[in-house]
Amino acid sequence: MKSQALFIVKLLIVSAALSVAIKEIAPRLAIPATTTNVLIAVLLPTIVMAVTFLVRYANISQQKT
After folding, report:
1. Contact at 8 Å (CB) between 16 and 10?
2. Is this prediction's pTM over 0.85?
3. CA distances (Å), origin 47, targets 7, 14, 41, 57
């Protein structure tokens, strides 16, 4: 129970730090509002998660054999 609570606290701290970084630092970046940048921002998290899951699936499949 204690380790789960500690994990949640750590997750909240990281989330808050990321939120502050986005709020304070992101407006200072000069990123133009182009279609390419929008597609990168929208699709990159999905692609990263898909690759992560494929690698994990490959590792699990390899361990079973």
Report:
1. no
2. no
3. 26, 22, 11, 15
Alpha-carbon Rg for the chain, nearest whole angstrom, is 18
8 A C-beta contact, residue 31 and residue 37: yes
Closest residue by Cα to residue 41 from 62, 22, 58, 61:
22
pLDDT band at 62 (very low <50, low <70, confident <90, very high): confident
Residue 1 has pLDDT above 80, yes or no: no
Secondary element (H or E) of residue 2: helix 2-25
Task: Tell me the mean pLDDT in the region 7-35.
Answer: 94
Phi, psi (rounded to 5 degrees) for 29:
-80, 135
3-class SS of residue 38: helix
Q: Rounded CA gap, 20 and 11, in Å?
A: 14
